[in-house]
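Possible race condition, two jobs.
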Amino acid sequence: MSAQIAPVEERHNSGIGILLLSQLILLFLDTSAKWMSNQGIPTGEIVFIRYAVHVALILVFVWPLRRGGLFRTANWKLEVLRGVCLLLTTGGNFLAMRYLPLTVTGALIFTSPLMVCALSGPLLGETIGWRRWLAIIAGFIGILIIVRPGTEAFQPASLLALVAAFFVALFSIITRKLAGVDTALTQQFYAGAVALLLITPFAFTGWVWPSDGITWLAFFGAGTVGMIGHILISVAHRFAPPSTLAPFNYLTLLYLAIVSWLIFNQPPDQWFYLGASIIIASGLYIWLRERSLNKRATSVDDAIVD
C-alpha cells in the first residue's frame, strides 16, 4: 500500500513558519560540525556520521510503518540528484567550517537565495527582470566585502562555502519540484542514502573517536537534528516556493553570530556586518519584488475570470 502524498498547497505563512523552525533545529547541526572539526575529527567522518544516523533513524522508525512505500518514488532521478546536491552542500560547508568562523560560512551559504533567483529562469521557467538582476549583483558585491579576495584576510575556504551555496540553491529548486510528487520522508530517505553511499568510501581514512561527552553528543546529535530539520524543509516547500522561503533563512545568520561568539570565541568583524547587510538587503528586495509580481499576476487572473 503506497503512502498518500500530500499535494502542493499555497499556504505561504505555514511554509515560512515551518522553515524558521527547521533553521533553529539545524543550528545544532552546524554547531556540532564546527565543534567536531575543532576536536580533530576529519570532515569525511563528520559527513559520514551525519548521514549514517540520518538513514538509521529513518529505517528504524519509519520503514516499519511505511514498508515499501518509503522507497517508492515517482522520480528517482531527481531524488538521486537531490541527494548529490545535499552531499556537496554538506561536504563543502563542513570543510569550510574547519578554517572559517561560522558567521562567514553562514553568510556565504545564505547567498543561495540570490542563486535560486538566478537559476529560476533556466530551471523553473521564470522570467527574471533587470531589477532582480541588479539585486543579485549587489548581493555578490556583499560576498566580495566579506571574503576580500586579494587581501591577507582572504581564505580559499570561502570558495568551498560558495560552492556549497550553489548546491543549496539547486537542492531548494529540486525540493520544490518533488513537492507533491514524493512524500517528505521518502525524500529524506533518498537524500540521506545517496549521500551516505557516496561518502562511505572516504569516511574511514584516519577515523577519530570522540574523546569527551560533548563531542559524543555532537557526534550522534548531528544526524538526528539533520534528519528532522530537512524533513521540515521538505514540508515547508509543499506550502511555498523557494523564492518565498529563501529570504527567511537569513534569521539563521543572527543565531550563527551568537553561537560563533559565545561557543567558539569568534565574534563577527565589521566586514561581516557590512557584507551580510548587503546580502540580506538584496535577498529581501528579491523577495519583495517577486511578491509584488505575484500579486499583480493574481490580480490579472482574477480580472480575466470576472
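Job #2 (started ~2 s after job #1):
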Amino acid sequence: MSDERAAAPGLRERKKERTRQALSDVAVALFLERGFDAVSVAEVAAAAEVSKPTLFRYFPAKEDLVLHRFADHEDESARVVAAGRRAGTAPLDALSAHLLDGLARRDPVTGLCDHPSVLAYLRLLYGTPALVGRLHAYRVRSEAALADALAAGAEGDPLLARLAAGQIVTVLRILAEENTARIAAGETADAVEADAVAAAGRAFRALREGLPY
C-alpha cells in the first residue's frame, strides 16, 4: 500500500500534464485560426469542454496557454549545467554540446526548424505583443535559474554567475533568432544548418575568451 501511495503523486502529475498539453493544443489551434486577441478564454474553455475556473487552475493567464510549449525549456540551461557538472564537464562545454545536439535534432527552440506547424506557432508568438512580453518574463526566469546553477559550482560568485547567465541566455536567443529569420525568409533548415553550427561555435568561443571589443 505504501508503494502505491508513493507512486500516486507521480501518476497525478502525469495526468495533470496531459491535461495541460491538451488545453494548450486546443488554445493554440484556435489562436492560429483566428488570432490570439480574437479568441476569449471562455471560447478556449468551451472548445476544450472544461469550465473557465478549471482552465485557470492549469493556466493562470491566457498567454500561458501558448507559452506552455516553452515550459520544459525554462530551466533547461540550468539542468544542462547541473548534469554537466556531475559528469565533470565545464558549464560552457555542456551548454555548447547541448546546443549542437538541438541543432542536429531540429529542436524548435534553436530556431533551426522548418516544420510548417512550428513556423505558424512562431508567427503567432512573435506577432502578438502580449506573448512577446510574456516570453520576456520566461527568459528572465530562465536566466535566474541558470545563474543559480552556475553559482552552485566551485566559482560560486553570485554576481559573476548572474553576468555569465545574462550573456549565455542572450547568446542562445540571438542564435535562435538568426536561424528563425533565415527560415522565415524562405530558406530550409538543411540549408541553414552549417551556418548555424558555425555561428554557435563562434558565439561560444566569444563566451569563453571574452568580447573582442
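The mean pLDDT is 91.
Logs attached separately.
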